[in-house]
Amino acid sequence: MRTLLILRHGKAAPETGEGGSDATRPLTARGKREAELMGQLLHSDNLVPDRILASNARRTRETAREAAAAVHFSGAIDELDELYLAEPEAYITAVRRNAPDAQRVLLVGHNPGLEALALILTGDPVALPTGGLVVCSLPIASFAELTPRVRGKMHRFVAPSELEH
What we know:
The chain contains four helices and six strands; from the N terminus they run E-H-E-H-E-H-E-H-E-E. The protein is an alpha/beta fold and 165 residues long.
C-alpha cells in the first residue's frame, strides 16, 4: 500500500499583464498560509512525505516549500517542467519515474489535472480549491506500479477553510 498526497497550489496573485506570465505568479499571503496549514495537517496526521514532486510554476514551488517546512520535510523538492498545468497521465508518469521506492509522495500541482487525477485513482469526484488536499491510499507495492488503472481509496479531502480558526 502506498499513499499519494495530492495538493493544489495555494492562492496566487493574478497575472499582471506587465510581461509576467502565468508560470511566474507568486503566492499571496493567503496562499502561503494555505500551504502552511496543509503541511501542519500532514505533520499532525503523521503523513510526512518521503518525496515531494511539484510543478515548476512559481506558485507550486512556493506551495511545496511552505508545506515542506511545516511538515518538517528535509529532502529535496523535485520541481518538474512536465507538471506545469499537467494532465493526470503526466502526474502518474512523474510519480512512477521520480519516486518508485517512496512510501508516501506529496504531489503539488494545478487544476484541472489534479481533480482529474484524484477521480481516476479513487473514483471519487472532488472540487479541489486552492490549497486543497486529497489523501489517497493505493493498493500497489511500489509507485513504479502506478498506472491510470490503479483504483485506490480517498481517505480524506481537506480544504484550507476547514482548518482556519
